[in-house]
Predict the 3D structure of the following.
Amino acid sequence: MFASADVAVELVKSKIKSLTEFLDVYLRIANVHTVDFYTQDVWNQFVALPPEAVTSHLLYQQQGSTEPERPGASVWDESQRLSDVAAYKRVTQDHSLPNLGVCTPLDDLLQEMWGDKQKDMFLKTSTFMSSKKSHEVEVMSKVVASFAKYCNIQQVIDIGSGKGYLSSYLSMQYGLTVYGIDSSSTNTSGANERNRKLKRYWKVYQRQIKHLNQDSASEHLEEEPVNKVESFKEIKEQIGHGSEQESSPQNQSGHIQPPVQTPISATFLEAETNEEKNRDVSAQIVGSIEDEFNDSEFNENLFLEFLSTDAVEMSSLLWKKKDLDEEEKERRKTASLEAKAKRIKEANLYSPLTLHVTSQTELQDIISEVKDSMMVGLHTCGDLASDTLRIFMTKPELKAVCSVGCCYHLLSEEFELSGDSKDCCLGPWGFPMSQYLRNSVWHCGRNARMSACLPLERVTVGHRLPSESLFYRAVLQVIIKEHFGNGKTCATLQRTNSKHVGKIYSKSSSFVDYTRKSVEKLGMDSSKMSDSLIQGYYDRYMPRMKELEAFNLLKVALAPCIEGLILLDRLCYLKEQDNIAWSALVQLFDPLKSPRCYAVIGVKK
């Protein structure tokens, strides 16, 4: 199965070994806590260069630089401080996931499954959600639907489904039965409402496409070619059934009524009985449509363009009634009954469920009829990504899995607190998963896992990290140390983990305001500090803010290496199992649009 796209377990283990040896040396940079940056003089402790030199090489230096490489150059000086940024950049790139040679290209995988047919089977990108979410849902649904078809599966279980974007799309566009499971009742309720509205859109879309594809020789439109149409609004303008109202008054139920076309006799968004009455009116299209309407690519893009993030209910497209003969009326009546039967059958293709999922969760307890299924997760946080793979392995009814994780800092780590495995046997742990990495009793650390979430590609194209908020927190720590460093107050803060100030920066008008709000939240008395005293700390450390920015770039460069180890550990876990026929690590998304872009995919024998 997928022989040309498979990666041997020996290669995966060798890359894990290479990464752990590399990170044993470099992980100390990633594990520095930004809060302690000034209190522990981190820059002078780790770096022997001015911050401008680091920023210049890591952020502004363009590819194709004429600077000669020095293969034998050492990253560190005699005091083990970083002294060669160019060498640091090269070695981190060599150990980043894209350069390890273990990822399966998405195009190769789809080509292996479908050959040249894949070009005609899937939709093209469209922004019916936010640009990021639209990209993620479209690409991942393509992959999930491909594996479902390949494995002859009709049921999908979406773990951590959130607002149901992926679940709704899989059910409506690909006809899969989807159970979306999320621990938040708010998300589940929102997903239910959003799916209800999207199904209304879906009905309108299906009806219009059906009738637009009908051949009629009675009339022809003289407007510009329809393949240039980008929205339903433009279709209405081309057909020429009057202008749209400019206002959007609020109805009695509190919904915003969007502009509607006049004349209009009813809407598809009323009760089901009214919808049945309106069907004959809406189904009649004046004249014939150019052959361009038969183009499948246009039809698919039309659907994507019609969906929206908010999914605000709107009037359907209505057409002028035209006299029909008895035979045509009977045909349409029969078609209406068949369509209604199909809608009843497909009404519950997507079912949002509320449940906190762990590796011990029994699917039969939440899904009454569990059939052969595929388990998926789009940006499942922390341990949920690991638990998804464990559930997949232990449930015989699950035949395939596609998991994209995120929030690595929320992973539980088996050997983080102790190097002795006997002291850390409670599990199951989020990291490491593979027996190979567990045998080495290797640990990463929370700060390093936090660094793994940093978006390298975005930073290198100009998206800066939120340096000022980090700077505020680091200077605040100096104030806490110098003014609250003794006595019961300090001891209490240590026991309650005083480093967690929270999201106060966005609510503060200045550093002085930020400091007073933070100190109050931490339960300390700031009355002995004047505003001028607090502002003096800001003025003292402001010239050193560039040190903090440059050091964060060193962390960013390490991010793909740490993320690579976490993901290869998950891949190795699957490859260690006897009942796995095929598994791979695949980059699904454009990292500029979605930084957590890798999926762990597995198929059972």
